[in-house]
């Protein structure tokens, strides 16, 4: 009697069938899952979201008016100190103490988050747009056009960034441009002018490696225009490095604003309570620097906030780099 052939699949056949039936995840979905498994990146995102919340709802979160001076309340120590070095007792109503004019340090620190958030994001958006367009054009066109753009990029890259910021802020501070948004517009412009070159180089390198690929040749064969090839095929395939570099550029913007504010060249302190941008963390550190030995709490809150923001974006940038690196696909 003939035996019936076995129909039980082997383990390898089961694995192959499972892979065929499971819908594959896209690159971005897979990158997201890799990112949220990175504990440092998740911690960075939590800190960034917290400071975004503080900046948006500063009016509701600040316990006092950041411009209000309280007579007889100057240089109060923070709440965790019973008596300050000057012999004054702390007041629970002023958790971080007060400055030399009796203004609440906690409220001013909360309002300072707005400037750092805006300075971190808005110039970076301009930098990404300018650098991506220049890099796309240089890499796709090639030849003499590429050579001219890259030599211009080298000239901008060779100029010292901080020196340029100081020259621009000192020269134009008292002009109409320098007074827009209490000096923030001029700061945005100074930051954007010299920081796009890194994005241009990265995007150009990506375009040079992609423009001879088969899918680009196929797009040319079906009659796709140069603009469509650049913005519908080359740019989307270059988004990984752009996103990573953006996340690592934002902390640089925040540090630069803090440095300029500490030098007295950043945001012009506002005296109008209706202004959105009243002070910055850099300006607060400048205010506390003169009294750092007697009242160190004046400089500590803004300095800690700047450090947390920079670390958070650095952790997020590292996490994005690991999540979007194609060489790591399938290793985690």
TrEMBL record:
Keywords: Cell membrane, Membrane, Peptide transport, Protein transport, Transmembrane, Transmembrane helix, Transport. GO terms for biological process: peptide transport; protein transport; transmembrane transport. The chain crosses the membrane at residues 40-58, 115-140, 152-172, 184-203, 238-263, 297-317. It is a multi-pass membrane protein. One of its GO terms (cellular component) is plasma membrane. The keyword Transferase does not apply. Residues 113-317 form the ABC transmembrane type-1 domain. It comes from the Bacteria. It is found in: Cell membrane. Pfam families: BPD_transp_1 (PF00528), OppC_N (PF12911). Its main location: membrane. Belongs to the binding-protein-dependent transport system permease family. OppBC subfamily. This is ABC transmembrane type-1 domain-containing protein. It comes from Bellilinea caldifistulae.
